[in-house]
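Page 47, continued from p. 46.
Same chain as before, 90 aa.
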Amino acid sequence: MENINNFLLSATALGVPSPEQFQTVDLWEKQNLNSVVICLQSLGRKASTFGKPSIGKTGTSAQGHPTGPFDKVNINDGVVDVARKKVKII
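Result:
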């Protein structure tokens, strides 16, 4: 549990906003793993600030959604809009 707290302190120091962080109990008790993934993705976007490969771009859209190459994913003939959680399969 101490390592989880150390990770969260480091994530804060690296610039991960608190709304995108998870609670220690979320990971420790495997309750809200979606919030853990959100934190890891946010940390991945911050990596470009330090000259490291990152996940997508570091910005957000006008609606507050993360921007990057993963916003729209082509699947066969359909498009999945990840940022807005809309799925349109043609």
